[in-house]
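Extended Data, panel c. Modelled sequence:
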Amino acid sequence: MENVSAKGVLGHLSFLEAQSKQKKTGAQPQSREQELKTKVEELKKERDRLRAEIDVHKNLQKLRTSLDNNEDVEMDDDSENTKLLILMAKQTQLKDVLLAHHLMGGYDAIKTNQDKSLCFSLATAYQGAILDTYNIEISVSQPLRIIRHNIPPFIPVKALAEETNVQKNIRGFLDTLSLHLNAFAARKQQVKLVKERHPSVEVLETNALCSLLVLMLTEPQTNTALLCSLEYLDHTRSLPTRVSVQCEETDLSSSPQWQKNKALLQDTPVHEALLIMRKTGHIN
């Protein structure tokens, strides 16, 4: 057992001696040199990659400028790489539009006048029906300025811009403007539905803003004519703020049932309220 142990120790010493000689002959410096060469190659590859990335960004910027200005895209060749660059440019353009759409609270916006202004589209709808769409172009240079729009003249665009401080809160301005437009569209649509669905009801008067509606109703039991006036003093709402009913029979217009009908007209879209009144036998 002692001989085996001695041989094991001697073997270990021989290994250490050989390892020491290997270090002295310069094997380690050769390994370090190879490591540095590898590092240099890796840095060269990274340099080439960065240069290629810079070239791609330059070409993308060139393409984006052409696309934003609605110019024809001109490239040096028609290779697959060029086609890919064009697709990437269109993708980044779409992302910018979607970002603007998100930042502006969901309003569709496109760049115009060489990126100096934005044109916003404000769609209107009522009870699931898509109605008119209006557009407003705003200069993005300071101070912000409304360049043009196709919004009806009876909606005070400039006054709303001042009230909402469009210079600091463009989204607030668009929200308020959209509220006015959708309320107007809803009132206008209600008048249309009254004419279509209630031929026995006569529309005597309305105005461009649809903030006033005068109807002639007929009570079926006595065949009495009633003059019903609906006033929409809050132009951001589609329901009237005041309803009045007049007729020669004072007792009829002031009766409890017609007081309920007045409340119904004030709390329900007019075409729906008239349908309820007709079904319950209060009008023809």
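The mean pLDDT is 82. This feature is highlighted in the accompanying rendering.
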